[in-house]
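Task card 7
Instruction: Convert sequence to structure tokens.
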Amino acid sequence: MNPVRLISKRYLFSGKDVSLISVLTTLSIIGVTIGTALLVIVLSVFNGFYDVIRGILLAQDPDIRVEHATEQTVYYDEELIASLKGLDEVVALSPFLNGKSMMAFDDRNEVVRVRGIDLDTFLEINDLEAHLETGLFDFSVQGERPGIVMSERLTNRHGIRLEDDLALLSAAGMRRALTQFSAPRINRFSVRGIYSMQQIVETDHVYIDLLAAQRLFNARNRVSGYDLKIIDTDQADRVKSKLEPILGDDYSVSTWYDLQKPLYDVMYLEKWGSYFILMIIVLVAVLNIVGSLTMIVIQKQRDIGILLSMGMSKKKIRQIFRTQGLYIGLIGSGLGGGLGLLLTWLQGEYGLLKLSSAFIIDAYPVAISPFDVSIVLVGSLFLCLAASWYPSIRAASVQPADAVRYE
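Output:
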């Protein structure tokens, strides 16, 4: 057996009685184990919340959105649509027209966000229809009233029910009325569907047919942009880099991440901020490693002197104590990683820790990322190896003659 590994194991594990050194070593391993396990669990919980929030946002946001770089609306371009659909990664494309409008119902009114959509293509990239509480996704004209689909929160706020009539008045309509000294053009709709979805960032949208939206906003044959669905959502950045040269500077391309970038960035900041803060737990355990290995150097000073006098190089002396740090790191990070993965799996399978019933989900979500687990294990192991640096230098500086005389 390699003499460096043999001596390292004997110094670290072969104590015949319980001493302060063995207690400090055990505490070091326990500290590394607890810190590593906590890091795995906490990062998995952050990943779980990230997946929950992303799932909610992707129910409303497309994989990729193409808009004009400077103008709020752009003319509907058949050639552009054909070039976008021609990409192998693009599964579906849907034009849309966004705007704000005054909604009036009985004697109440509110400014709402209106989105005009082409229903057939919209449902290919969005699962909003699955969130309908009552009614249908129907924009057809019935009784001289086109259909409108609204959120449950908005209808509850104003006491609106299915088949009720309401009016929308856009800023463009009011402006034209003032400049032409005529009554404002009011667009009336009939409520055909009510959906219920968790909202995180923006207010609720009301959905109408694209042609009705163009009339409402006085934007004939114009759209705000195009929503794209691609084969793999996680490849949105790669598809974006492929689209930008094709579209040129006149258009901006946004991925699902870009559309909610501030929120996603904050979540990443919280996750990795927690990683560095919780690493302090491992750092405290590492200080115990420094102390225990230094005490081993002092206790084994005579043995070190004998090894040096027998011809063992100072490099191998250093390797003996660095190997001890490696063993402590491997045991602590291995046990901690296994414990963290086990507890994370149990939480994912059985929901051991519950959340408030008012939250979106009933238990803490978890998602294990191999990259995160690797970062935790490598970080813990690195700190343990770093902790053995000072004791190894001190051991290599022992003078053989003084060490042999030492009693």
